[in-house]
Structures are given as structure tokens and as C-alpha cells.
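Repro:
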Amino acid sequence: MTKIPDFSSIPAYAGPPNDAQIKARLRTVAELGVFRHALPQYFGGFGDDFTALVKSHRRLGETCRDPGLMLAVNAHLWGSIFPILLYGSQAQKAQFLPPLISGQWLGGHAITEPSCGSDVQAMTTHAALLGDSYVLNGEKRYITNAPVADCLVVYAKLTGKICAFLVSRNDDGCRVSDEAALAACRGSATGSVILQDCRLDADRLLGKIGAGTQMIQKALEYERAFVFAGIAGIMDWQLTEVVRYSRERRSGGVHLGKHQAISHRIAEMKLRLDTIALWLNECARLCDAGQRLTLASAQTKLYAAEAFLQSSLDAVQIMGAAGLESGSALAELVQDAMAGRLFSGSSEVQKNLIAALLGTGDAYKANPLSHS
């Protein structure tokens, strides 16, 4: 079994996180092997499983207490490494996987646009085949890792079909910026990708023409299944802090946790955390067994996102004014938890997907001849 490293060497932020500090933390995480789990040894992975990945991410989250870092880690893994592993040619795997797995390169994927979020068919970024090259035009926004990434998997329409392209920040016609950066999850660098006649060689097409929709769905399935593995570690720390405070704070002549209004909130925080762990382990089990992940990943993302927000609100409520002090990590987690309900597909999107997989909602087309 792969040994989980000591993550205490991850450098601390000096003031508000900036791109240089964010990149340095990601490089350190890479050096500690976080990007090597569930990947074949041939390309530099550990050759272990998704269960090991969950354990490593949870320990990392508990140590770093940084949802932004965990978001960046998952964008790198599921946005770039796994799509290349699953859909890349042998030449693409050999070129891109070793530097991405080692952390020499940082990556992610660019799906969201100014007027296109969960409805990927509405994307307007487009590609055209000119001779033996592809030319991309469009704008991607709210892209995790964009300002620090060396390469991105960028999705665009080619003759109306969604395709994936491997784009380097150094390609002519590609400009990345921190425009539209988010206030939440500040430990990740979020920004825009502007493509203006960005010319790519034909070998930068990832997978087959028209396979982009399937690739997006697969990447998001993995991300939804495991993005909260690290955040569960943060929730471990959050719960420990609340329990400690409930013992030390005195109220009405007794410790704060003696009051049921407090102790019941803490009990519910523990229940949520352990339920998230059960879902994460189930997703790892399904992946390790090569079974379908679609439903379980949507359920995991929906439950974990709502649980993280409620527990973050409960933590601040228990701490009272102390939880709202300037610079309070617990107060910042509330804002990060709000983002957690949106990234990798909103809670509403997960509910729609679950309903569709049950054969109702948008997936159900009634037989016009049926009267039932």
C-alpha cells in the first residue's frame, strides 16, 4: 500500500494567495506524489488504486485546510491527466503525462464560457480545420488553474461537434489571464482563456472528432466523485476545532457543549462528515472495480456540497462572534462552501442528473399513445 506522505512541508501563504504562491504549493503537492495515485507506473504513477487516492487527498485537506488547493489539484487530475490517459494517442500520452504527473507542468480543462455553464452544447468556442492545422476562436471563463497552467484541455465545436484540444499557454493566439477571478476558494488560480486564431497542429486534437461531450461527462464524473475527498479532510479539522471550542467556552456555568443546541449541531456535523466518507469510499470501490460511476458521483457531489455548506454555517454559529473575526478560517470556509455548490456542476444539475438516471425528469419521454 502506498504510504501517505507528511504534508506539513507545503509552504504557507504570505498574505493573500497570489499566482506564484499557488503554483509553489501545487509543485510541492506534486513532489509529494499527490498526482501519482490510481495511475500506471509506466507514466510515473504509483500503480495503486482510487482508495489510496481518497486517503491521500483527505490527509492533504486536513493538513492544508485549503479548499482552493484541493480544487486546483482536482482540476489538474480530472481535467488534464485522466482525459489524456483515457483518450490520448500513445504519442500524446508519452509527451504530456510524465510532466503532468510529476508536476513539472500544471494543467486543467476549459469548458465554461461567459454564457455557457452546465449546458455544454451551448458553447460558442469553435475550431476550424485549415490545411493540416486547427484554428480555435472563443473565450473560456472561470477556469480553475488557467493563470498558472502550462497546458489545458480546451473544448470547442468543430463542424458543430464538441472536440477536445491540447492547448499550451505559449501557443500563438492563446492568452490566459486572471480576469473573472473568484473571491471563493482563493487558494486556486481562476481566470479566463482567450483564443484568437489560435493555431494548433493536427496532433493536438485529443480523442476523436465529436468525442468531446463524452470526455466532458467522464471528466466531470471523476471530479464530482473525488473533489470532496480533500474537503472531507478540511471538515475533519473544522469539526475538531468546534469540539475544542465547545469544551473550552463557558456558558451558563457549564461548558458550551453541554447545551443541546450546541451538542446536536456537532453531532450532525459528525454524521455529515462520516456520510461523505461512505460516499467517497463507494466511488473509489466502483472505480477500482471498473464499474459505472455516473449515479454515485452525482449523489456524492450533491450530498457533500450541501453538507459542507451546512456544517460550515453550523461551525460559525457555534463559535459565535469568534467565528466571524477578521481572517477567521471558519468564516472563509462558508464562502468556499458556497462555491462548492456550484463547481463541477451545481446542486440543481446533480438533482436533474439523478432524476434522469432514474428514468424521469428530462430523460423521460412519455409515449403519446399511452394513457397511463
